[in-house]
Structures are given as C-alpha cells and as structure tokens.
Amino acid sequence: MKGAAAYILPALLGVAALALWEFLVRLYDVPVFLLPAPSAIGTALAGNFASLLDSLWVTLQVTWLAFAIALAGGLALAVLFARSRTLEASLFPYAVILQVTPVIAIAPLILIWIGYEHVERAAVVIALIVAFFPILSNATIGLRSVDPDLMDLFRLYGASSWQILWRLQLPGALPYILTGMKISGGLALIGAVVAEFAAGSGAATGLAWRIVEAGNRLEIARMFAALALLSLAGILNFYLLTGLEWLLLHRWHESAAKTRR
Amino acid sequence: MTTLLSLSGIAKRFDNGVEAIARMDLDVAQGEFLSLVGPSGCGKSTALRIAAGLVPATGGTVRWPIGRPGIGFVFQDATLMPWADVLANVRLPLDLRHADRGGAQDRAARAIARVGLSGFEKAYPRELSGGMKMRVSIARAVAAQPRLLLMDEPFAALDELTRQALNDDLLRLAREDAMTVIFVTHSIYESSYLSSRVVVMTPRPGRIAADIRLAPPPLRDQSYRLTQEFADAAGKVSAALRSAMQPGAAERGAA
Predict the structure, then answer these.
(1) Nearest CA-CA partner of B36 in B172, B150, B156, B167
(2) Which of the residues A153, A170, A250, A254 would you substitute to probe the B interface, choosing the one with the greatest number of B C-beta atoms within 10 Å?
(3) Cβ–Cβ gap B92/A157 under 8 Å
(4) Please, where are the H alpha helices in B61-219?
(5) CA dist., res. A71 & res. A60, Å (int)
(6) Strand ranges for B2-89 from DSSP E
(7) CA-CA distance, B124 to B133, in Å (whole number)?
C-alpha cells in the first residue's frame, strides 16, 4: 500500500462508522444511558475537558514512571543474567511466577500494603509488575544472541567485559529490547488502569477512576469520553516507541529498514 | 628463517568427545604465506583458533619464539557489526585499544582505501555486497597493523571473480605490510595461487599429512594461473590431498 492510502483508508472507515453510529442512535432513539451518539460523547468530552485532561496526565505519569523503572530494572537484571547463568536459573522462575499470576488478583494486596491513600503509588507498582517481564526476557535473549565470531574478535583484541557489554551486547540486543519495550509500554498502561479499578474509590484521580465514577452515575457519554482518551494514551505510547525504534534501527536492521525499500 | 609460531603436539578434543586434532607439529616462519588445506572437519579452523588463543588446546603447546605478535583474524563470514558503519567497523580494533580518536580515524580511513572501498566509509554492512563486506573485514584486520594474519576460509562464500580479485589484493597487502599469513581453505587452486607453503591435513582427527614448499613469483597476477608452474603446484597439492583422504593416512601422517 502506498504512503497516504495507509492513513486515508482507515480514517475514511472510521468516519463512516461514526456517521452510521450517529444515524442509528438517532433513528432508533437509543437511550443515552445505554449508547450515546458520537456527538453526545464529543459534547461530554468538551464539557469535562479540563478534568479529563488532568486525569489523562495522572494516568500517563503513572504509566511512564512504571515503564521507566521497568526499563532500567529489566535491563540491569538482564545484564546480570547474561553474565551469570546461575543467577538467571535462580531468579528467572520467580520473574515468570510474577508474570503469569493475573495482575488484577495481586492488585488488592498491593493496595492494602501501600494504602488506599496512595493509589498512584500502588498503581506504579502494579504497572511495574506487568511491564517488567517483557523487557527482562527480551533483553536477556538479546544480550545472549551475540554472533560468536564477533565475540571472538572482541576477545582477540583484548576487549574488557565493559567494552563487550557496551559495544557488542547492548547494540546487538537493541532490536530485542525495543520489542520488549513496545510490549511493556502497552502493559504498563493496562497496569495503571487495573490498579485504579481495583482501588474502586479512594484518592485515585486517573482516567480509569473517571470511568468508574461516570459508570456509577450512569453518565455513559462521559465514560466513552474517558475511554477515548485512554485509547489515545495507548496509541501515543505505541507511536512514541515505534518512532524510537525507527530512529535507532532504520539504518542497519532489516525489521525497520524494510519499509524504506 | 626466524620462527614466528611453533605448535608442538597440539591436540584438541571437544567437550562432546569429538577429537578434532590428534597431534599437530608445525613451525611457521616469519613472512611465510602458509595455507592449511584439508577436508571439512579436519580441524584446520580449530588449529587456527588455538593459535589465536581463542580456543584452548587439550594437549601440546603454542609458543611464540620472538614474542606474540599483533594478530589479525578474518572469519569465513565478514563478521561485521551491523549497527556500525564501515568506518566504525574498521576502527574497532583501534577503539578497543583506546587508540587516540583522530589517529584511529586516519588509520581506519587508510585501511579502507587500501582495500578499495574509499567513499563507502558511511555505508552500513546491509548496504554492501558479500565481496565488499569481506573487504571491510580485511581492512579491519590490517588497520591494527598485525604481524600475523589468520584467515579462516575467508573467500569460500564468494563468487569466483570476486575471489580472484580478493586473492590479489590480499597478496599485495601481505607483501606491503610484511605480514605472515596462515590461510585456511579447502580450495586446491586458492592455496596453490596464494601460498609459499601448503600444509595438508588428514580427515578428523586432523594430523599433518604433507608439507609442500612452493615458489610462486613474488609479484604474480591472474596470468600466473595459466602457467605450467601453477599447474604443477596445484597438481602437487591435489595429489597430497588425495593421498591424505585415503583410509590409514592419519597413521602415516603421524609417523
């Protein structure tokens, strides 16, 4: 598909779907507390814009902070794993357990420990738990996937282990790490939302809480408005990371370069 | 002739029990262009890696009578860092030694020019052909000005014309820098064209089956391939290789 068509076609489809939605809601006079028309959602979004934007900012901060800690911690642990099989063998199963246990089930426990008066802090921890594993496992595989001949070459020239890490393992692991980051970016947002849903009340002010609150009051249009912003946050994160990936890989890695050919 | 490298009683058995090299004695003189020839799996690559210190031998000793020289290594694949451009790849050995930046830059650029790749400094490996990548790999090896160049079937994956051009370039570089070269190949013609000495190995476990001295003209080009001398040299190597492949050759080689 050529450049512009890739954007225009989905945009046209979206507009058509919204128009059909608006038309059907008006035609059948669907009650606003069941399914509001797009125009009503737009009005709700405009009417609550300031408070929704504040909430969006809170959710994004939680997501980004958790993501940053997951990235730093996941990379650091992956570097240690790449150096020591023993350490990896001892710790990796616990990372898996943390990953496979549904986060929604852990969330209440974490909220109790950290306290309902600090829902944001608990949200960061919960988002961190889900965002950590993809970075850890991808980075570990990436750091180990070094071309053995290149490794020999570095050793032949007397490279220090720091030089091997910095000049060989990390650049080689970059495509893997970026894949992990894209997965984690999405999961961090889910974690941030899950935490607020699990809290249900208290001091939460993120977008998820706006959804809960609007739902309790049967303000379905406002629910949709918050939901739209939440999608927007996810899309924003995804494209930020895709852009970063392109920036770092397009000169040399086939995955990013192919689109150019 | 000064001995640069002396392998005595070298043996290698891998952890999985495979015996790659049974017993290998070899003295390499300074300035020699020595080819190690043998069938696949005869341990010639392993011998090269043992000499480079990349793989430990399970028996025997590696000695450097006049001191361990700077070593360049060229692999069968170009083995470039895909994330780095040509200049950064060639500069790698200098960077790893913390050579000063400006000097390293100049020396890398000169090495790139010597393999005929000037103008490609900013290109990335994925943008280069197989032959060009191999040239970068050779430039990287010579940039560090090694006295000993170890090459592990470097041109095996290239087409015949590219291979012949690289043969001539390699001879020129070795002569200009007075490098000693140990060149692993399974090509009879390549070894006959390049070498002043061809060492033939038996199938696994590898032993030395024949040690053939050749006297090619110091300055040779493609026309040498058409001469009777070249045909004779190739005939000798070919005959030695054929007898090394026969059952029982390993025992005779050891005797």
Answers:
(1) B150
(2) A153
(3) yes
(4) 86-96, 101-114, 130-143, 160-176, 188-194
(5) 16
(6) 3-13, 19-29, 33-37, 59-63, 71-74
(7) 10
Compute, in degrees rounded to 10, the torsion defined by CA atoms A91, A96, A97, A102.
150
Would you call A157 and B54 a contact, using CB atoms and an 8 Å cutoff?
no
Query: CA-nearest residue of chain A to B128?
Result: A252
- Residue B195 is given by DSSP the state -
Long-range contacts of residues B216-219, Cβ cutoff 8 Å, at least 24 apart: B218/B175
* Residues of A whose CB is below 8 A from B150: none
ipTM: 0.90
**Which secondary-structure segment (H or E) carries B207?**
strand B206-213
Supply A114's token pair. 């950290």
Can you give the length of chain A in residues? 261
Alpha carbon distance B181, B150 (integer Å): 6
Based on its alpha-carbon atoms, the radius of gyration of chain B, rounded to whole angstroms, reads 18
Q: Which long-range contacts (CB under 8 A, 24 or more apart) does A16-22 make?
A: none
Residue tagged 């083995």 (tokens): B79
- Mean pLDDT, consecutive 10-residue stretches, chain A (261 aa), reads 79 94 93 91 93 93 96 96 90 88 90 87 93 94 94 94 94 96 95 87 79 90 94 94 93 71 40
